[in-house]
Structure formats: C-alpha cells, structure tokens
Specification:
By secondary structure, the chain is an alpha+beta fold. Helix content is 30%, strand content 27%. Strands 12, 15, 18, 19, 22 and 23 form a 6-stranded antiparallel sheet that branches. A 5-stranded parallel sheet has the order 3-2-1-4-5. Strands 6-9-7-8 form a 4-stranded antiparallel sheet, with helices on both faces. It starts with a helix and ends in an 11-residue tail after the last strand.
Length: 441
C-alpha cells in the first residue's frame, strides 16, 4: 500500500481527542513546538525526546531520555507508545534519516526526508541546487584542497564568507575581512578540522551587503505556503558585532513590504519547489530561507534550513493562531492548497539569555533564579539549555533561555521581554540589549 494512503487511513481512524504526539529535540524551538502542540484540543499527551527543564513543566508534556539522533530508539518508542504524529525539531535528526525510517514503518513523521534535508546538511549541495535552478544567491566556489582554496581566495575581493559544508550547530560560518584572515580560516577548517567532518569541504562566498530576514514556508510536496516572517540576530554582541551564533534573539513579523514578499515567493520559493520536484525530491515540512535583502531591495539566499529556526520559532509560534497539529496533518496529507493559516496581528519578540563566553568556551551547571517572578501571560519563557536537578533549574549549554513577549507594537514587545529578562539571573548570564531596537522608532 502507498505509504501516503496508509498514513491518511491511520489519521482518519485516530480519535480526535486522544492523539499522542512526539516532538524530537531539546532546544528552545522544541519547547515552543511542544507548548503549541499541547494547546491542541485533539492532543492528549506530548512526549519530548530528550526535552529540557521547560518542556518537563508544561501541561500534558513528558520528557523521554532518548537523544534526537538515536533514531532506532525513537522508532522503538514511537511503535510501543502508540505515537500518532512525530514532529522533528533539529537538523541532526533529519540528517540521520529519521523521517525515512519512520515512514518505512508506517509512522506519521513531520519533516523532510534525508535526501531533501541535504539543502541544509550540505552547503555545497544547496549552492549547486540553487545554481541549477537559477535561484539568487551569492557567487561561490567550494574546496576540499587547501592549495586550491588559497589560490581562489587570493583573487577575491574582501570581505569573504567561509562556510563549513556540513552541520556545525550554527557556528560554521565565518566572515573574513582580510585575505590573511580568510586564508587562516580556510586552513583551520580544511587542515585543522575546526568543525570535524563538517569542514572537510568548505564553501567560499562573496559577501552580501544589506539586511537579513527569515522567510519560512511549509511544503506538502506540491504546494508551499508562507509562515509568518521573522528577523534573527545572529551576531553575539550589540550592534551586530562579534562572532556568529545560533541566534541571540528574534522578532516576528519582519515588517517587509507586500512587494518584497511577492518577489521572494516568485524568485526564490516557487523555483525551489519546482527544482525539488524536477529532481524527484518530495519535500514535506518546513523550509527556512535565510535571506539577505540588498540595499536596492533584491533578495538572495544565504542559507536553507529544513526546519523551523531557533530562536525564530519562539516568536513565530507565539503568533500562530491555527492548530499546529491540524496544520501538520494538512502537510502530510497533501492538502495545503486549501489550508489557511491564521496569525495574531500583534508583534512577538524573543531575547536569548546565554552563558557568558558563548559561542566559544563557557561554563554550565549554574542554578537559574527569578523564573517564578514572571507573571505576565503574554510573556513565555522558552528553555533551550536547561535541566531539572533536585527541583533546581540548571544551565546546560550556551543558549539557555529565550524570553518571548507578545504585544501590540514591537516597542511594547521589547519592553515586556526586557522587563522579564531583568528578573532572571545566574552567574555570567549574557544577552544582547538591542533585539528589535532598530525597528519602530
């Protein structure tokens, strides 16, 4: 039996009030997904693998001690716990082929398969794909040999962007401002194995000027519909300075014009779906396009991700008024052409609280104080790097929390978020003070 028909039959026969959903991952994105899924009236139980201290405290939610990349153990859990729907959060699970495995056994799994996920898991694959299908992106060359990389870099204008080909937890992108710096970065990646196997190949790109936005769509294989726009702050320090991170904060919407929105759909999103279909790739799930908008308003793709962004997911999901589980059904049943997403007209803004020293070396194991001081129901504390230890919430990673607020304007959303941020603390806590500051003045 065709797997799509089989899964559709399963969904028709599931009682709408008793669904059991599994969310894969442990970060802020996964906390936001679990929080949103738990609001669905058709969901009785949400499991998160492995989850964090935040997901452990949500109603209807239970953490499961299985790593996101242990796809065989996740399959066993789903089979033996009557999981009706699995939503994949992190890119590592997609690269490991969790969707392919679950579908092989007739399980309903939201996310692109391993072949489709190459758009994120290989920068080289993504750039070649964009070149084949005339999707606007920065000029580039890729290398596995340092001598060839050096010869190319010597001929280029500065600055240059050097990327590890594979997954590097959001840290494998370096902007080099001098040729000496670019040559050293290339050497460290290719010969010093800075990012392990992820940097066995590098991509060297021209530097694009402008401002960044996040444009997320969902695909059922035939139709792509846009999610709410967002803007991420990837640099560690205020005024967009310092090293790249996985994201220090975000807000939604990104306040782009209808004209730019249509241009992005026409020049990037539509050709991407057409290119995937032409190459025989059936794409189910979220597709994240990280875009640079040039000073003259032209969008180019900086990167593709094959899932919701983090921290963009937190403000986006706070604004989502549609039932997320119902939406996932529409994607996997191929009915997006008749589906309409509903959004809150308010603005959501999230500020990431990180460990001092992130994204380089940092200490963990600190007890977080002040979490119980947030009483505003328009402010959500999404956990990323936390665990419960004897009823204490402890830091476990570089990005720890994302304090996200919903308000009528971005100015009020900032005020709410930072008011909450100031009540939370642990030794060496660090955050940017200017998330969304350039908007709404």
């Amino acid at each position: 039996m065709n797997i799509k028909i089989f899964m559709l039959i399963i969904m028709i026969t599931i009682p709408i009030y008793s669904m059991r959903v599994l969310v894969i991952g442990s970060g802020g994105r996964e906390h936001a997904l679990a929080w949103k899924v738990a609001q669905s009236s058709c969901v009785a139980k949400v499991f998160v693998a492995p989850g964090n201290a935040g997901t452990a405290q949500e109603q209807k939610v239970e953490n499961i001690a299985i790593a996101a990349t242990d796809i065989q153990a996740l399959l066993h859990f789903a089979q033996h716990n009557t999981i009706d729907l699995t939503i994949v959060g992190p890119e590592t699970a997609l690269e490991a082929g969790i969707v392919d495995l679950f579908e092989q056994y007739g399980l309903y799994c939201f996310g692109p398969n391993k072949k489709a996920a190459q758009l994120e898991s290989s920068k080289y694959f993504a750039k070649e794909f964009m070149q084949r299908h005339a999707i606007p992106t920065a000029a580039y060359a890729s290398f596995t040999d340092l001598a060839n990389a050096r010869a190319y870099i010597e001929q280029q204008k500065m600055p240059l962007v050097i990327k590890a080909d594979g997954l590097a937890a959001g840290k494998g992108v370096i902007i080099a401002h001098t040729k000496q710096e670019a040559l050293e970065v290339a050497r460290q990646m290719l010969e010093g194995h800075t990012f392990g196997v992820a940097s066995e190949r590098i991509v060297v790109e021209e530097f694009l000027d402008g401002y960044e936005i996040t444009f997320i769509v969902a695909s059922d294989g035939n139709t792509m519909i846009p999610f709410a726009t967002a803007r991420d702050h990837k640099k560690r320090d205020d005024a967009d300075r310092g090293p790249n991170t996985g994201g220090m904060g975000a807000y939604s919407p990104a306040f782009i014009s209808d004209e730019l929105h249509e241009k992005i759909m026409h020049t990037i999103i539509t050709p991407t779906l057409a290119g995937l279909k032409q190459e025989g790739i059936v794409y189910h799930g979220f597709l994240y396009a990280g875009l640079m908008i040039s000073p003259d308003g032209e969008p180019k793709v900086l990167e593709f991700n094959c899932r919701l962004g983090d921290p963009e997911a937190q403000p986006i999901l706070m604004r989502l008024r549609s039932d997320l589980v119902d939406f996932c059904h529409a994607v996997l049943q191929g009915t997006l052409d008749s589906y309409e997403l509903k959004w809150d007209n308010q603005v959501a803004l999230g500020v990431v609280l990180a460990s001092g020293g992130y994204p380089d070396s940092y200490k963990t194991g600190y007890s977080i104080t002040g979490l119980s001081n947030i009483a505003d129901n328009t402010v959500q504390i999404f956990h990323a790097g936390t665990k419960l230890d004897n009823e204490q919430i402890i830091t476990t990673s570089g990005r720890v929390l994302c304090i996200t607020a919903l308000a009528d304007t971005i100015i009020h959303a900032r005020q709410k978020a930072y008011t909450a941020v100031e009540k939370i603390s642990w030794p060496d806590v660090f955050y940017r003070t200017d998330i969304g500051q350039s908007v709404g003045k």
